[in-house]
Protein backbone atom coordinates (compact mmCIF):
# COMPACT_ATOMS: atom_id res chain seq x y z
CA UNK A 1 0.00 0.00 0.00
CA UNK A 2 1.37 3.48 -0.84
CA UNK A 3 2.66 5.40 2.15
CA UNK A 4 5.15 8.02 3.32
CA UNK A 5 8.37 6.74 4.83
CA UNK A 6 8.86 9.30 7.61
CA UNK A 7 12.33 7.90 8.35
CA UNK A 8 13.61 9.53 5.15
CA UNK A 9 14.36 13.27 5.07
CA UNK A 10 12.15 15.36 2.77
CA UNK A 11 13.98 16.72 -0.30
CA UNK A 12 12.41 19.88 -1.76
CA UNK A 13 12.17 20.04 -5.54
CA UNK A 14 12.75 23.15 -7.68
CA UNK A 15 9.59 23.65 -9.76
CA UNK A 16 8.96 26.10 -12.62
CA UNK A 17 5.33 26.99 -13.28
CA UNK A 18 4.14 27.92 -16.76
CA UNK A 19 0.70 29.24 -17.57
CA UNK A 20 -0.30 29.01 -21.22
CA UNK A 21 -2.87 31.69 -22.01
CA UNK A 22 -3.61 34.53 -24.38
CA UNK A 23 -5.59 36.40 -21.73
CA UNK A 24 -4.04 35.86 -18.28
CA UNK A 25 -1.57 37.95 -16.32
CA UNK A 26 0.12 37.01 -13.04
CA UNK A 27 -2.51 39.11 -11.24
CA UNK A 28 -5.45 37.01 -12.48
CA UNK A 29 -3.78 33.63 -13.11
CA UNK A 30 -5.87 31.46 -10.78
CA UNK A 31 -4.51 28.13 -12.02
CA UNK A 32 -0.88 29.19 -11.76
CA UNK A 33 -1.64 30.72 -8.37
CA UNK A 34 -3.24 27.48 -7.19
CA UNK A 35 -0.17 25.51 -8.25
CA UNK A 36 2.21 28.00 -6.60
CA UNK A 37 0.25 27.77 -3.36
CA UNK A 38 0.20 23.94 -3.37
CA UNK A 39 3.86 23.59 -4.34
CA UNK A 40 5.06 25.87 -1.54
CA UNK A 41 2.58 24.49 1.01
CA UNK A 42 4.08 21.05 0.48
CA UNK A 43 7.67 22.25 0.97
CA UNK A 44 8.90 22.63 -2.61
CA UNK A 45 10.25 25.79 -4.22
CA UNK A 46 8.75 27.78 -7.09
CA UNK A 47 11.96 28.37 -9.03
CA UNK A 48 10.33 30.37 -11.84
CA UNK A 49 6.85 31.39 -12.92
CA UNK A 50 5.91 32.67 -16.38
CA UNK A 51 2.94 33.15 -18.67
CA UNK A 52 3.26 32.49 -22.41
CA UNK A 53 0.77 32.82 -25.22
CA UNK A 54 -0.97 29.83 -26.81
CA UNK A 55 1.78 29.50 -29.39
CA UNK A 56 3.69 26.26 -29.91
CA UNK A 57 7.02 27.93 -30.68
CA UNK A 58 6.76 30.18 -27.60
CA UNK A 59 5.88 27.25 -25.34
CA UNK A 60 8.72 25.14 -26.74
CA UNK A 61 11.18 28.01 -26.29
CA UNK A 62 10.22 28.44 -22.64
CA UNK A 63 10.45 24.69 -22.01
CA UNK A 64 13.89 24.52 -23.66
CA UNK A 65 15.11 27.45 -21.54
CA UNK A 66 13.96 25.78 -18.35
CA UNK A 67 15.22 22.28 -19.15
CA UNK A 68 18.65 23.81 -19.81
CA UNK A 69 18.60 25.45 -16.35
CA UNK A 70 20.27 23.18 -13.76
CA UNK A 71 18.28 24.96 -11.03
CA UNK A 72 14.97 23.54 -12.32
CA UNK A 73 13.97 19.94 -11.61
CA UNK A 74 10.34 20.02 -12.74
CA UNK A 75 8.15 22.11 -15.04
CA UNK A 76 4.40 22.13 -14.52
CA UNK A 77 2.23 23.97 -17.01
CA UNK A 78 -1.44 24.81 -16.92
CA UNK A 79 -3.60 25.58 -19.93
CA UNK A 80 -3.73 24.72 -23.61
CA UNK A 81 -4.37 20.98 -23.22
CA UNK A 82 -7.84 20.92 -24.74
CA UNK A 83 -8.93 20.24 -28.31
CA UNK A 84 -9.59 23.72 -29.71
CA UNK A 85 -7.49 25.27 -32.42
CA UNK A 86 -5.41 27.35 -29.99
CA UNK A 87 -4.66 24.39 -27.67
CA UNK A 88 -1.09 23.42 -28.59
CA UNK A 89 0.55 22.70 -25.24
CA UNK A 90 0.75 18.89 -25.71
CA UNK A 91 2.33 19.35 -29.14
CA UNK A 92 4.94 21.72 -27.66
CA UNK A 93 5.72 19.33 -24.81
CA UNK A 94 5.98 16.32 -27.12
CA UNK A 95 8.41 18.25 -29.32
CA UNK A 96 10.87 18.51 -26.41
CA UNK A 97 10.34 15.16 -24.68
CA UNK A 98 13.09 12.59 -24.68
CA UNK A 99 10.71 10.14 -23.01
CA UNK A 100 6.98 10.39 -22.49
CA UNK A 101 5.38 9.30 -19.22
CA UNK A 102 2.02 8.07 -20.58
CA UNK A 103 0.82 6.85 -17.17
CA UNK A 104 0.47 10.45 -15.97
CA UNK A 105 -2.19 11.37 -18.54
CA UNK A 106 -3.91 8.03 -18.10
CA UNK A 107 -4.13 8.38 -14.31
CA UNK A 108 -5.12 12.05 -14.55
CA UNK A 109 -8.03 11.22 -16.86
CA UNK A 110 -9.05 8.24 -14.69
CA UNK A 111 -9.17 10.49 -11.61
CA UNK A 112 -10.95 13.20 -13.59
CA UNK A 113 -13.52 10.68 -14.84
CA UNK A 114 -14.65 10.23 -11.25
CA UNK A 115 -15.42 13.97 -10.99
CA UNK A 116 -16.49 15.11 -14.45
CA UNK A 117 -17.40 11.89 -16.23
CA UNK A 118 -16.99 11.68 -19.97
CA UNK A 119 -15.92 15.35 -20.20
CA UNK A 120 -12.45 14.07 -19.24
CA UNK A 121 -11.88 12.97 -22.84
CA UNK A 122 -11.34 16.64 -23.68
CA UNK A 123 -8.14 16.70 -21.62
CA UNK A 124 -4.82 15.99 -23.28
CA UNK A 125 -2.82 16.23 -20.05
CA UNK A 126 0.64 14.81 -20.66
CA UNK A 127 4.03 14.30 -19.03
CA UNK A 128 7.57 13.41 -19.98
CA UNK A 129 11.25 13.92 -19.34
CA UNK A 130 13.78 16.08 -21.18
CA UNK A 131 17.41 16.72 -20.20
CA UNK A 132 16.82 15.41 -16.69
CA UNK A 133 13.77 17.61 -16.10
CA UNK A 134 10.27 16.31 -15.53
CA UNK A 135 7.57 18.05 -17.59
CA UNK A 136 3.86 17.98 -16.74
CA UNK A 137 1.11 19.69 -18.77
CA UNK A 138 -2.18 20.18 -16.92
CA UNK A 139 -5.53 21.60 -17.99
CA UNK A 140 -6.19 25.27 -17.33
CA UNK A 141 -8.72 25.06 -14.53
CA UNK A 142 -7.74 25.54 -10.88
CA UNK A 143 -9.67 22.39 -9.93
CA UNK A 144 -7.77 20.28 -12.50
CA UNK A 145 -4.48 21.70 -11.19
CA UNK A 146 -5.49 20.90 -7.63
CA UNK A 147 -6.56 17.36 -8.57
CA UNK A 148 -3.32 16.66 -10.45
CA UNK A 149 -1.21 17.98 -7.57
CA UNK A 150 -3.12 16.39 -4.69
CA UNK A 151 -3.74 13.02 -6.31
CA UNK A 152 -0.56 12.46 -8.35
CA UNK A 153 2.25 15.01 -8.24
CA UNK A 154 2.31 15.63 -4.49
CA UNK A 155 3.17 11.97 -4.00
CA UNK A 156 5.46 11.38 -6.95
CA UNK A 157 7.50 14.52 -6.19
CA UNK A 158 8.03 13.48 -2.56
CA UNK A 159 11.12 11.31 -2.13
CA UNK A 160 9.54 9.71 0.95
CA UNK A 161 6.62 8.23 -1.00
CA UNK A 162 6.70 4.45 -1.17
CA UNK A 163 6.89 2.07 -2.92
CA UNK A 164 8.59 4.44 -5.40
CA UNK A 165 8.59 8.04 -6.62
CA UNK A 166 10.00 10.19 -9.41
CA UNK A 167 12.42 12.09 -7.17
CA UNK A 168 14.55 9.03 -6.44
CA UNK A 169 15.00 8.59 -10.21
CA UNK A 170 16.32 12.12 -10.79
CA UNK A 171 20.01 11.20 -10.48
CA UNK A 172 19.54 8.58 -13.21
CA UNK A 173 17.53 10.58 -15.76
CA UNK A 174 20.58 11.46 -17.83
CA UNK A 175 22.43 8.14 -17.69
CA UNK A 176 22.26 7.94 -21.47
CA UNK A 177 24.43 11.08 -21.75
CA UNK A 178 27.33 9.66 -19.76
UniProtKB/TrEMBL annotation:
Residue ranges constituting the MoaB/Mog domain according to the UniProt record: 16-160
Record bears the keyword Cell cycle: no
Pfam families according to UniProt: MoCF_biosynth
SUPFAM superfamilies xrefs: Molybdenum cofactor biosynthesis proteins (SSF53218)
Record-level GO cellular component terms: cytosol
Pathway stated in the Swiss-Prot or TrEMBL entry: Cofactor biosynthesis; molybdopterin biosynthesis
GO biological process: Mo-molybdopterin cofactor biosynthetic process
Keywords linked to the UniProt accession: Molybdenum cofactor biosynthesis
CDD domains: MogA_MoaB
Metal-binding found in the keyword field: no
Entries under InterPro entries matching the protein: MoaB, MoaB/Mog-like_dom_sf, MoaB/Mog_dom, MoaB_proteobac
Family to which this protein belongs: Belongs to the MoaB/Mog family.
Function: May be involved in the biosynthesis of molybdopterin.
UniProt name for this protein: Molybdenum cofactor biosynthesis protein B
Organism: Aliidongia dinghuensis
